[in-house]
Amino acid sequence: EDQVTQSPEALRLQEGESSSLNCSYTVSGLRGLFWYRQDPGKGPEFLFTLYSAGEEKEKERLKATLTKKESFLHITAPKPEDSATYLCAVQANDYKLSFGAGTTVTVRA
Amino acid sequence: ETGVTQTPRHLVMGMTNKKSLKCEQHLGHNAMYWYKQSAKKPLELMFVYNFKEQTENNSVPSRFSPECPNSSHLFLHLHTLQPEDSALYLCASSQEADYEQYFGPGTRLTVT
After folding, report:
1. In angstroms, rounded to a whole number, what is the distance separating the alpha carbons of residues B88 and A15?
2. Hey, is the C-beta of B40 within 8 angstroms of any chain A C-beta?
3. A95 to chain B, minimum CA–CA distance in Å?
4. Which of B90, B100, B106 is nearest residue A46 as measured by Cβ atoms?
5. What distance in Å separates the CA atoms of residue B19 and residue B25, rounded to the nearest whole number?
6. Can you spell out the DSSP letters for B22-72?
């Protein structure tokens, strides 16, 4: 069975304090790995798709990387508006999408 | 309207009621999805429709009944729900089954 584990569950950062979120996965053939951001009371917002080990994607202060067993979401010099829950999802070769429980990031000014 | 819209945004219903959730996507996508999101738990995929055909039913109880009349609209019909069905119900769409999904704002459902 496909499994996605995100750590830590919660992360409290000072503004400007860079950090990384982890998404480890086991899947029967990886088709793609997705990162989403979810604000309270809203649906998830798509951030990145990664397809193969070694791939990296960047958007503003966020950078996602992928290895054969895990993905990292690096937040560089975060701002309070980066506070959200970040979700990781993996899609197997059968197209099934499995989500992790998320990491809730709080950035204090 | 742009993106994926869902109505109603909030719904309170008794266990004997019948209600429906509506989802509409304005993105020209071919696949649509229903998810359940409960506190502290991963999103649970409920149903998948690809080109209006149901391609996945993730062992969802029959008190949840999906309907996809066309590739832009998706409904979730609810009847005789249980309190444990209270959750945020999210609709999503994607261009094809293996593309990134775009989510609506969700319907917060409370079953009393």
Report:
1. 30
2. yes
3. 6
4. B100
5. 20
6. EEEE-S--SEEEEEEE-TTS--EEEEEEETTEEEEE-S--TTEEEEEEETT
Non-local (6+) Cβ contacts of B39 within 8 A are: none
Distances (CA, A) of A72 to A23, A24, A32, A88, B93: 6, 9, 14, 10, 25
- Residues in chain A within 8 Å Cβ distance of B30: none
Contact B97, B48 (CB under 8 A): yes
Per-residue pLDDT 10s for chain B (112 aa) are 679 999 999 999 998 889 999 999 999 999 999 999 998 889 999 999 988 888 877 789 999 999 999 999 999 999 999 999 999 999 999 998 888 999 999 999 999 9
- What the block records as the tokens of A105 is 């990031």
Q: 């809730």: which residue's tokens? A: A104
Give contacts of A89 with chain B, Cβ < 8 Å.
43
Q: Are B20 and B76 in contact (CB under 8 A)?
A: yes
